[in-house]
Design a protein that fits this description.
The chain is about 50% helix and about 15% strand. By secondary structure, it is α/β, with parallel strands linked by helices. Strand 15, helix 19 and strand 16 form a beta-alpha-beta unit. It binds phosphoenolpyruvate and magnesium ion (MG). The site of phosphoenolpyruvate has 10 residues, from strand 10 and helix 17.
Length: about 600
């Protein structure tokens, strides 16, 4: 156990939500119920069943209330997480099994419920599929809540009644608890377990609360009232920070506050270089609920709408009408800005349990994206018709992922033409001049960019994949991450070839992979001639800030250096130096 008299100690974990905070901690220990099998009399059974059913109704009300607050305070997509809770809460198979157990075993509702849900959790935990793993978290969260209600625990953590600011520390934090956090009182949180893409981490980022997860034993080692400093940039929690540490972090916090002011000033300004070159700055989105974030962060439209996310976490794939409603809503909300809808990019690391994609030896080299769509014309047709129909209501463009050669482009375009003929016959309006672009994310596409440029209205470089395919380094494998180098000369040459081919044919080129949102690499990309950058909404202000401080002539000189340099690390070092000199404020708040 720690004590204020002990010295500084640093816990290291995974940073999941940026920012630094410091204060006293509140350790949350989830109520641990002692559940024993207790026999009840035959006459008590109906009351016990009734008690269980009443608790289900009470739990549903609580979840509805949490969902309502989440939708109000964050975005609708965060609220969607609780749809899974509600669905599970209504699962008749589980409910009937619990009631049967109460009757057959003549036992209490808490014992029956605990026995049944434990069995489901154990079975689902063995599944490798992401879908089941996510469901296990939901079921655990839900089971804890139902048991709290059966035991009449008022509110496990009673976070609604915090009276002074604190940093929460716990073994884990469920999405439903995270959703209740009040930014006024919760400065940050730290947990023993968790990962970057968990729903809890996603929520922390949406709430803009600094958070570190995966700290292993922190909840056992710290006590209520301990004083800590939490660094959500670097993934550390410092207990009993020394004056020196506090002073250093105090400086960083001041720098961050002054950077935030600078970023706010330019939020609605254009992304234009010091010498007058305008860069189209767009956002990457995953569903209709992200539209608010696009506008709030000062992006000018959407450069990549990853539509496959509409297919994840749903019981059934969305049909033409469902998709049309989503695309239409996004286009209308962002009008007159353009929205580039990327056709389905399923496969690779994006599995959808409801489409029965077979396991493959090399999923990134397998049945993915346009390959999958061309082999499933009915599924593809529904999406193409939905996009075309929505194009009547806003400024929509469309692009195909994973194009490796002309054949795929021609086949996809032929399908689009067929859909247009159908829609005309059905007298359904659409934009006759809908622009269609090609993603450049396979080396073969970069090498034949001149041929593709004759047949496309724009290019968007998918650097996440272009890097993995060019350098043969799996983008999801930590063991080869040292080979995954955005500044490898091969990548820089591919970007240059793509831009040159596009410009020679009078079309533009964007970058929608992660490097487009990396302020360090932005000067290099625009120096190479990239016309558009598309990135996650939260990083848009920093990218814009960098663009507005760059001179094209200097960015071009940086690109020329990179094109003749043979070393990825030297190129990267030059980019860092350039970025730090050009926009020092962007780097002063990160340790
Ligand atoms: C890319 O590959 O860079 C890209 C934007 O697409 P995704 O990350 O969805 O594969
Ligand atoms: Mg890609």
């Amino acid at each position: 156990m720690s004590s204020p008299t002990k010295g500084e100690k640093v816990f290291r974990g995974t940073a999941v939500s940026a920012g630094v905070c410091r204060g006293k901690i509140l350790v949350l220990h989830r109520a641990r119920h002692i559940i024993t099998q207790r026999e009840i009399a035959e006459t008590e059974i109906p009351d016990e069943v009734k008690r269980f059913e009443q608790v289900l109704v009470q739990t549903r009300k609580q979840i509805n209330e949490i969902q309502r607050r989440v939708v109000q305070n964050m975005s609708g997509s965060e609220g969607d997480i609780f749809d899974a809770h509600l669905l599970m809460l209504e699962d008749r198979v589980v409910i009937d099994e619990v009631i049967r157990t109460i009757r057959d075993k003549k036992t209490t509702a808490d014992f029956a419920f605990h026995t049944v849900t434990d069995r489901y959790i154990a079975a689902m935990s063995k599944e490798k599929d992401e879908f089941f793993r996510e469901r296990v978290d939901v079921l655990r969260d839900l089971a804890g809540r139902v048991l709290d209600n059966l035991f009449e625990v008022k509110d496990a953590f009673d976070l609604k009644h915090l009276t002074e600011p604190c940093i929460l520390v716990s073994h884990d934090l469920s999405p439903s608890t995270t959703a209740q956090l009040d930014k006024k009182f919760v400065l940050g949180f730290a947990t023993d377990i968790g990962g970057k893409s968990s729903h809890t981490a996603i929520m922390a980022r949406s709430l803009d609360i600094p958070a570190v997860v995966g700290l292993q034993t922190i909840s056992d080692e710290l006590e209520n009232g301990d004083y800590v400093l939490l660094d959500g940039y670097n993934g550390t929690v410092v207990i009993n920070p020394t004056d020196k540490t506090l002073f250093e972090y105090g400086q960083l916090e001041k720098n961050k506050a002054s950077l935030d002011l600078k970023l706010a000033e330019i939020l609605q300004q254009p992304a234009i270089t010091l010498d007058g070159k305008t860069i189209q700055l767009s956002a990457n989105i995953e569903d209709q609920h992200d539209v608010e974030a696009v506008l709030a962060h000062g992006a000018e439209g959407v450069g990549l709408f990853r539509t496959e996310f509409l297919f994840l976490n749903h019981e059934k794939p969305p049909g033409e009408e469902d998709q049309y409603q989503v695309y239409r809503q996004v286009a209308a909300a962002l009008k007159p800005h353009s929205v580039i809808i990327r056709t389905l990019d399923l496969g690779g690391d994006k599995f959808v349990s409801n489409l029965q994609l077979a396991q493959e030896m090399n999923p990134f080299l397998g049945w993915r994206a346009i390959r999958f769509c061309l082999a499933q014309p009915e599924l593809f047709r529904a999406q193409l018709r939905a996009i075309l129909r929505a194009s009547a209501e806003g400024n929509i463009k469309m692009m195909y992922p994973m194009i490796s050669g002309l054949d795929e482009l021609n086949q996809a375009n032929a399908l689009v033409e067929k859909c247009k003929v159908e829609l005309r016959a059905e007298k359904i309006p659409f934009d006759e001049n809908l622009e269609i672009g090609v993603m450049i994310e396979i080396p073969s596409a970069a090498l034949i960019a001149d041929a593709l440029a004759k047949r496309a209205k724009f290019f968007s470089i998918g650097s996440n994949d272009l890097i993995q395919y060019t350098l043969a380094a799996d983008r999801t494998n930590e063991k080869v991450s040292h080979l995954y180098e955005p500044t490898h000369p091969a990548i820089i040459r591919f970007i240059k070839m793509t831009v040159d081919a596009a410009h020679a044919h009078g079309i533009w080129t964007g970058v929608c992979g992660e490097i487009g949102g990396d302020a360090v690499l932005v000067p290099l990309l625009i120096g190479l001639g990239v016309d558009e950058l598309s990135a996650a909404p939260p990083v848009i202000p920093e990218v814009k800030y960098m663009i507005r401080r760059v001179k094209m002539s200097e960015a071009q000189a940086l690109a020329e250096f990179a094109l003749q340099c043979e070393s990825p690390t030297e190129i990267y070092a030059r980019c860092v130096e350039f970025a730090r000199q050009t926009a020092p404020s962007l780097f002063e708040s990160k340790a």
